[in-house]
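Weekly sync, protein design subgroup
Attendees: M.S., D.O., the rotation student, P.L. (late)

Item 1: inverse folding check
M.S. brought a backbone from last month's batch and wanted to see whether the design step gives back something sensible before we order anything. D.O. pointed out we never logged the input encoding, so this time it goes straight into the notes. Structure tokens as presented (226 positions):
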């Protein structure tokens, strides 16, 4: 029977986050995926008026595009639970030939295995705004997952967090001169109190040319101007 695998490119990269729906998915492997682009555009618009919701990472199929994520094995029940979690995303098959593992020779995939990625549905797509900003707590979750992957394979994937950032479209985060990214950390000035990898996360964001200016602005923002 073929194995089932999920490619997580956002919060599913984080071990604690993905194992809520897939308890056995402790191990995850850094991977490059061809044919999909990732950016800041996934929004739960239907929740407006009921609760606050940020802009999340979303994926689209796009020829010649490349994105980064982690690959982890799941059961049928894990798949069903993750489908329920990923509101506004459609589970989409990925061909084995589109995957490039960044683990050296440590992991082997079978030709008849099935691979899935969650692609944003059109009704759940939009641009970051005051109503739907990026929030640091979600960025922390995603980047922590990329750091976990790099720490597991330091020789072959030590560069993974910065490379993962490079594969994301950050342009929509700046709208009309405003950076739509809020620092919602519980302890903004002592982030390591609740986020063990906060220093590494901040160093990665500050050291990447795509995010350094955005992050420096966001780290001082606790609300957005009208």
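Designed sequence read out in the meeting:
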């Amino acid at each position: 029977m073929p194995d089932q695998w999920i490619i997580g490119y956002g919060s599913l990269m984080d071990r604690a986050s993905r194992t809520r729906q897939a308890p056995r998915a402790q191990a995850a492997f850094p991977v490059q995926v061809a044919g999909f682009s990732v950016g800041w555009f996934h929004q739960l618009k239907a929740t407006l008026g009921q609760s606050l919701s940020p802009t999340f990472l979303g994926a689209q199929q796009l020829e010649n595009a490349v994105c980064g994520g982690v690959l982890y094995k799941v059961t049928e029940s894990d798949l069903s639970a993750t489908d329920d979690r990923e509101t506004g995303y459609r589970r989409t098959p990925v061909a084995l030939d589109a995957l490039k593992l960044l683990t050296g020779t440590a992991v082997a995939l079978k030709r008849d295995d099935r691979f899935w990625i969650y692609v944003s549905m059109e009704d759940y797509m939009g641009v970051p705004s005051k109503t739907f900003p990026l929030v640091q707590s979600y960025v922390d979750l995603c980047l922590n997952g990329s750091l976990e992957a790099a720490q597991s394979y330091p020789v072959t994937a030590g560069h993974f967090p910065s490379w993962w950032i490079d594969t994301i479209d950050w342009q929509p985060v700046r709208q009309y001169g405003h950076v739509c990214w809020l620092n919602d950390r519980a302890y903004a000035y002592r982030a390591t109190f609740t986020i063990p990898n906060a220093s590494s996360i901040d160093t990665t964001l500050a050291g990447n040319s795509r995010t350094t200016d955005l992050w420096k602005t966001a780290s001082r923002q606790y609300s957005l101007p009208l």
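Discussion: The first strand starts at residue 4 and ends at 8. The mean pLDDT is 94.
Action: P.L. to compare against the previous round before Friday.
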